[in-house]
Amino acid sequence: MLDRRQVLAMLGTTALATLAPTALFAATSIKPDDASALLVIDVQNCFLPGGSLAVKEGEQVVPVINKISKAFANVVMTQDWHTPGHVSFASVHSGKKPFETVDLPYGKQVLWPDHCVQGTDGASLSKDLAIPHAELIIRKGFHKDVDSYSAFLEADGKTSTGLAGYLKGRKIKRVFVAGLATDFCVAWTALDARKAGFEVYVVEDACRGIDNQGSLAKAWADMAKAGVKRIQSADIAVSA
After folding, report:
1. pLDDT at 188 exceeding the cut of 60
2. Which of 15, 27, 164, 213 has CB atoms 3.0–4.6 Å from 196's, for a disulfide?
3. Catalytic residue among 46, 116, 140, 207
């Protein structure tokens, strides 16, 4: 039979083993390799201060993204690219206001102010982004009758943007997601990336959320459940 000191020693060892992975992960910088890609989600004028769907503190993600992008050989950017009169706009639903919901054939849809309309200044990427080596821009949400949050799939869950095929063709195995907004386009992108078989990290301080009726907490919970890893920009090794 084990005595009290032996039991305590075993418990102490168990506790250290439990804590060790977390401590080790926090203390070790992540070095993106050729199988890694940074996905910069919807850093567009409409989502920045003065925009029609401005995300609080949205502009603060830009310098963080610019910094971490230097660590990546592979960078993909996305743009919301809506048609005029898009089904996701509250303005096309009589009696409805922004942030209310409607039921559409593909499910429940949050209604938004008109934003990121094709060819407008609001749809343009922020002029302060400095990522000249970004190799691809994915435009999404251009089908008038279906919204698109994810960089991988439209909101119907089956219409592909082609991004998964592109990344797999480039032999990318892990993706790092940053941009706007955490609880919508970032989270949906991260979740679909996991479904597509990628290892996924969301860079928390390189994102900002809308937080509509608890949506931010739910997004983080959904991502954690799916195995998405939540990190900070300081966890990524960036050369000086």
Report:
1. yes
2. 164
3. 140
Pairing of strands 174-180, 136-140: unpaired
Residues 6+ apart with CB under 8 A from 50: none
Q: Is the pLDDT of residue 223 over 50?
A: yes
From 185, 192, 207, 235, the catalytic residue: 185
Q: What are phi and psi of 173, to 5 degrees?
A: -115, -25
Query: Of the residues 42, 80, 147, 183, which is catalytic?
Result: 42
Assign 71 a pLDDT band (cuts: 50, 70, 90).
very high
In the residue annotation, 103 being an active-site residue is answered as no
H-helix or E-strand spanning residue 179: strand 174-180
Q: Which pLDDT score is estimated for 8?
A: 33
> Can you tell me the distance from the alpha carbon of 193 to that of 205, in angstroms, rounded to the nearest whole number?
20
pLDDT digits (tens, 9 = 90+) for 5-18: 333 333 333 333 33
Residues 150 and 185 sit within 8 Å (Cβ to Cβ): yes
Tell me if residue 75 falls in helix, strand or coil: strand
Maximum distance among all alpha carbons in the chain? 76
Q: In whole numbers, what is the pLDDT of the chain averaged over residues?
A: 90
- Amino acid of residue 190: A
Active site residue 185: yes
